[in-house]
Design brief:
With 144 residues, the protein is α/β, with parallel strands linked by helices. The chain has 4 helices and 7 strands, in the order βαβαββαβαββ.
Length: 144
């Protein structure tokens, strides 16, 4: 089976696209614990909220076998269809890429991966959120 190509999108481009396209959606696929303790992208200034659906659960990193079904339902609830741009974000871009591929395989035509994620990679002191990512780039966020 051929791997589905997903466009990599910088955090700055993701913010610009979310502002410019009223139908675009940011989907945060991190865990409930990450949303609560690390924070969430704050889209209030542009009249939006991120859609929150875990790609995998915590603890134990168990896969969310109902991910596509749950996200499809959440998108329907906000009036998003398979032609809307969906931008996926996780901690550092790995889970969100898998989630974007799953939704593209389900027929959503404009899936992108926020490559640096919410926190980005580890810095030399083994901390996230300092080198790259949504938080490090100074984009709006709020504690959960």
């Amino acid at each position: 089976m051929e791997e589905i190509h997903i466009e990599g999108v910088s955090v700055e481009d993701a913010w610009a696209r979310l502002k410019a396209d009223s139908a675009s959606v940011l989907i945060d696929v991190r865990t409930i614990a990450e949303w609560a303790y690390v924070g969430l992208p704050d889209l209030d200034a542009i009249g939006k909220r991120p859609v929150l659906v875990e790609w995998q659960g915590f603890p134990g990193d168990r896969p969310n076998t109902a991910f596509v079904e749950r996200l499809s339902e959440a998108l329907r609830d906000i009036g998003a269809n398979k032609d809307c741009e969906l931008l996926f974000i996780c901690r550092s871009g790995s889970r969100s890429l898998k989630a974007a591929r799953a939704m593209a395989a389900a027929g959503y035509r404009r899936c992108g991966n926020v490559t640096e994620g919410f926190e980005g990679p580890l810095d030399p002191g083994r901390h996230r959120g300092q080198v790259a990512g949504w938080k490090a780039r100074g984009l709006p966020w709020a504690q959960g």
